[in-house]
Predict the 3D structure of the following.
Amino acid sequence: MVADPRFIPRQGRVDDPHCALSLAERDRRWDALRDGMDRLGLDCLFVWGRARGQSGNVRWIDNGDAGERCLVFPRRADPVTLWTLGSWARWYEQSCWEGVGYAGTEGCESVAVAALIGEFGHSSGTIGVVGLAGAGIAAEGSIPWFTWENLRRLLPHARFRDAAPLLRELRMVKSAEELALVGKAAEIANLQFDAALRMMRPGVRERDVLVCMESAGLAAGAEQAGDFWTNLCSGKDFPTNRRASDRRLQSGDLLQMGLYTRFGGYWAHPHYAISLGPLDAEYRPLRDAVFEGTHDLLAALHPGTPWREVERAADAAVLRAGYYHEITQIHALGLDGSEPPAAPMTAGTLPARARRRRFEGSVRDLPAWRDFTATGPGAAAEPTVQAGMVLALEVKATHEDRIFVEFGPQVIVTPDGPRVLNPDAMDLVEL
């Protein structure tokens, strides 16, 4: 699988699939980023690539590995990636695109970033910041407070602006090369599903199914990463989302799997439901609601559809049947496992212990937060479905915080509608 002719690394680069992204793709991204910086009047970007839903911003720019790091991107010079150890320069120089520099921080990111910005001549310039204010699950951002305060102290004459919306906009629609990597990741996920089916029988541990499945993925070229994990659970009355355990499968079990497979940095995220034998009668109405919701959702995924209509399509069948969900029913993905746009996390009447606690206050109430986000490009229009989007469907119906059914494929939106990459995730599978 790694020798797939679509993904032969360029001569002189590390023999790793993600290096197959072309220099033309590098130039496309960097040119688009610099055009956006020109439009916003930014001299330089400081991109924080750490914490949930943030690391993909750096990887999109430098094409490096899956590790967390930060990056300085000047408008008129080549970018520099920063990680802890200065002695690892060769690693990053070889794994990133040609033209990407490297600097070790020795744990002092704010100092190293300020020094680089000064070397580029922008100590008194306008610096776009990505990672201080986020969106969705990472709404409060991920840059540590002391890092931010020290950076401002070291650059007292710089002007800082919120540039996170620029990266969100540029990453939402994928290029042909990105879509090829997405397709490969989905292909590997399909192989993992086939391997899991061959293992599923009464007496086998959930963990054994997981090991077989992940081994098949790695053998096929899947990328191993520190945040790599997979949901796999069976049995009634167990938590409705959990990792694989030592529980042994039994006849009549419903096994639920959510895969997180990566190739060249790009995620595949299909969800499967598999019944060992005829489906238990208690699950049948849940399956019917999820099946209807999945097909309603696919019917909505045509270019030009407002995102609010997508959200309605995702929830309607499940809520109409009297069930609820506690996970988003559809979200974008690419270099991060969850990217915008995304449907709301919960809907329906949740049982008391599953209800989201209502906290008073919000980071948005802070004057400093409002002042900083006001420096960005402004409120974005409501998103619409666009050709080139990559979306993960995970339609779920949950009952009494006890049983659930969830399945859904990953799709690429084309001018003619969604292209399904994981056909086995279109419906519950009975073995």
Observations:
- The chain has a mean pLDDT of 88.
- The first strand starts at residue 44 and ends at 49.
- The CA atoms of residues 307 and 328 lie 13 Å apart.
- The first helix runs from residue 23 to 40.
